[in-house]
Amino acid sequence: MILYLTTMKKLILLSILLTPVCMLAQNRYDIVIDEIMADPTPQAGLPANEWIELRNVTAAPINLQNWRIGDANGQSGPMPNFILQPDSLVIVCTGSAVSAMTVFGTTISVTSFPSLDNDGDQLFLKAANGKIIHAVTYSSGWYKNELKKDGGWTLEMIDTKNPCTGSSNWTASTNIAGGTPGKRNSVDGTNNDATGPQLKRAYTTDNSTIMLVFDEPVDSSIAATLSNYTIDAGATLISSATNAPLFNAVQLKTSSPLNPGTVYTITASNIKDCKGNSISTANKAKVGLPADAATGEWVINEILFNPRSNGYDFVEFYNNSNKIFDASKLYIANRNSSGSISSIKPLSSVPYYVFPGDYIVETEDPDNLAMQYLVKNPDNILAVSSPPSFSDDVGNVIALNFQGSAVDEVKYKDDWHFKLIDNAEGVSLERIDPSGISQDATNWHSAASTAGYGTPGYKNSQYKLVNSINATIEVTPKVFSPDNDGRDDITTIQFTVTEPGYAANVTIFNPAGVPIRNLVRNGTLGLTGYWNWDGLDDKGLKLPVGTYIIFTEIFNLQGKKERFKNVIVLARQLK
535, CA 20 to 30 Å: which among 30, 406, 463, 514? Predict the structure, then answer.
């Protein structure tokens, strides 16, 4: 009997030793999402199904039971009891796709498999204990191939030992079938990460919460260490936490509310990425409380409406104020054939702050823009999917604020270009003076050839602040009622200059920034004088009550110029 029990114990022990041990508590990046079929049509060769592929990069088998796949809109049902062996692959898809995908390799299904967006999505892999193992935010730009990003080809990870680098570690499959489900990626190779993370930007979610965004996932424990961050302008930080699922963002809390109108600087030090690379030097990012833009504060500064045949339109904006603006709450638009504002698009899909004196550019393809022109700061270029179109001869570019009000509009014409340019294709129109009138053709000029015919994201090659003169403009009364009752029926615009030889233009704008009355054109001035406005537009029609802007430009032949903006309220007496 004793001999029998001893033998049984040996057999049981031998069985345990020969049975693969499945890891129960996994570390981040033990399993990675290494291939994504987000847009299966038109088919290049693979079935028209969406799926992802997982790879176990460890030396131990891992049971995927109750693991889940998710995106920004939710997560799948649990995975079945399945053991993924070391250095092995498994295809994950919806149940209806299993039969088609099993032909290519081991396949498991989940209920509520995420619908993968063609242009980009955020995917995450969550273990049974709720821990995020891997996450990736892909975009159509990751294909690095104009043909393949239109569908039928997968995105493949190049180096699965380097899972948190982002776009530089992904590209379109080179397999003629369109992808490599169930087998090693066609682009598999070494892609070492020797660069530390960089702090890209910061924004606020309320008046005491600051979000920092890094260019890659960071070590979550180090990034959550409060002593790694400092802030200026009298603010004090009291807590820090790393945000899942991408772990490329850190939330900071301040001890008291931030002051409106103040620009703060956050400094991040000692932060490491998932490969252990450290920030080489302290990284800084500006932050503050954003405000909404008003007329004259957020201006259209450069327009490329006639790109080269292999290029795209772009529009540059300039923060001509002391405010902070959030590009995700600013919009670009055009006008349709009936003259209505159309094709409205936000400038950014995520919070992106534009500080006083900053430039940003919207375009459909930032990489293409960088091939066409000098781009000094790629972070200033914002990709807008399917942006408004602008014709090659005449069109409207409109800037809208968060309330949907047009804060700037330019109705450009191709004859605004410098007359000696034989071919204006690929030549942008640059605003000369950001504070000058948007619809004044003399305030626009073709970008200089020495600047490559465009300056997206930085000061225009034709930029000039016109020399000011000693002049004053006064409007009285500031509230008038042109109803012919003999009381305040007109408003008077009085001017004073200190030397002769000046002329003036006076234009009245409605609240949307559209010119409605050209009151004076190239009128010669004495040392003092005035003009009257009767509250009518250029067609002699009565205007609605409201606030109007009287824009006066005084200039001489020596290039001196002064511009004035006066607010006037048009009211009517109640009968």
Answer: 406
Tokens of 489: 């029926």
pLDDT in tens, 415-461: 999 888 889 999 999 998 898 889 988 889 999 888 899 999 999 99
**pLDDT higher than threshold 80 for residue 11:** no
CA distances from 114 to 51, 108, 111 (A): 9, 14, 9
86-100, 160-174, 410-424, 554-568: range with lowest mean pLDDT:
554-568
**CA 362 remoteness from chain centre:** 8
Q: What is d(CA 462, CA 505) in angstroms, rounded to the nearest whole number? A: 22
CA distance 302 to 253: 38
User: Distance (Å, rounded) from C-alpha 400 to C-alpha 322?
Assistant: 18
Whether residue 31 contacts residue 75, with contact meaning beta carbons closer than 8 Å, is answered with no
Decide: residue 572, CB within 10 A, 0-12 exposed, 13-18 middle, 19+ buried.
middle
DSSP structure class, residue 2: H
The 3-class SS string of 196-248 reads CCCEEEEEEEECCEEEEEECCCECHHHHCCHHHEEECCCCCEEEEEEECCCCC
| pLDDT tens digits, 320-369 | 999 999 999 999 999 999 999 999 999 999 999 999 999 999 999 999 99
Bridge partner list, 546: 570
Radius of gyration of the chain from its Cα atoms, rounded to whole angstroms: 31
Residue 8, SS3?
Answer: helix
Q: How many CA atoms lie within 13 A of 203 on its CB side?
A: 17
d(CA 427, CA 400): 25
Q: What is the pLDDT of residues 211-254, one digit of tens each?
A: 999 999 999 999 999 999 999 999 999 999 999 899 999 999 99
The larger pLDDT score, comparing residue 470 to residue 28, is at 28
Structure tokens at 16: 């345990």
Q: For residue 387, give the nearest of 366, 403, 408, 416 by alpha carbon.
A: 366
Q: CA 529 → CA 472, 474, 508, 556, 557, distances in Å?
A: 11, 11, 18, 16, 20
Q: Which residues lie below 8 Å from residue 50, measured CB to CB, with a gap of 6+?
A: 37, 38, 40, 93, 94, 97, 113, 115, 116
Q: How far is CA 410 from CA 141, 419, 466, in A?
A: 30, 20, 20
The verdict on pTM exceeding 0.90 is: no
